[in-house]
Structures are given as structure tokens and as C-alpha cells.
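Dear colleague,

Thank you for sharing your sequence with our group. We've completed the structure prediction you requested, and as agreed, I am returning the results in plain text so they can be pasted directly into your records. Please verify that the sequence below matches your submission; if there's any discrepancy, let me know and we will rerun it promptly.
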Amino acid sequence: MLQASDIRYLVVHCSDTDDDLTASDIHAMHLGFGWDGIGYHAVIIKDGTIEQGRPHFWAGAHVYGHNEESLGVCLIGRNDFTPEQMTALDELLRDWISRYPQARICGHRDFPNTQKTCPNFDVAAWVKDRGLTG
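Please find the predicted C-alpha cells below.
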């Protein structure tokens, strides 16, 4: 079980699809992989709605080797995220930083054991531009 003090990373992902998926869709997909359900802690759909994924006390299944020390959020889409999604991401990350001030915000692609480009934008630059800490 994750404790607040365990959270070192807040990881931004994308679904890397043009489909209009929801957290329920991703949950079903991840169950199909043989996982225990959705691997992310939150999903932001195209209209900016933040949907609940795993609870924060449950280790995610979203970044190899770092699930026991991170929370993950998935933006639905590939490259063209809506302004509503980016506003929701900002709001969610501000909330998470207030709860996990020791955590650093990063993109999935920023971890050493991944070949992915997810979330397909420079999270560090976006965080700096938004004035977020992390």
C-alpha cells in the first residue's frame, strides 16, 4: 500500500490513440492485459473531465520500476490535446503537488527504462511554462 511519503514522481502519460477513450475503456483494456485493472490513477478525457483511476494508496501499473513511488495520469489522445485537457492537467497536478510536495512532475518518456515518447510533449518545459513546481 502506498503512503503519501512514498510518492516521488507524478507521471504524465497519453493514451497514444485518436479514439475517445474513457477510464472505463482503459480499465477494460488493462484487464485484458492480465493486469489488476487500470494502471493510472487518473485519466483526463478530451472535454477536460478528470476520471478516477486507481486510488492513490494502490501502486500503479504505468512506469516500469517506479510504480511503488509514483502516481500516473493519462491524457486521452496522441499529440493534439485540447485546451480543456491541459487546464485539467494543470489543476490535477497542482492538487497532487499540494498533497505530495516532495514529488517531481515528469513525463513517462523521461524514465530510463522506457522507449516510449509518451506523452509526446516536453513535460518539464510545460511545467516551467505553467509555473508548477515539480
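Summary note from our side: The mean pLDDT is 95.

Kind regards,
the structure core
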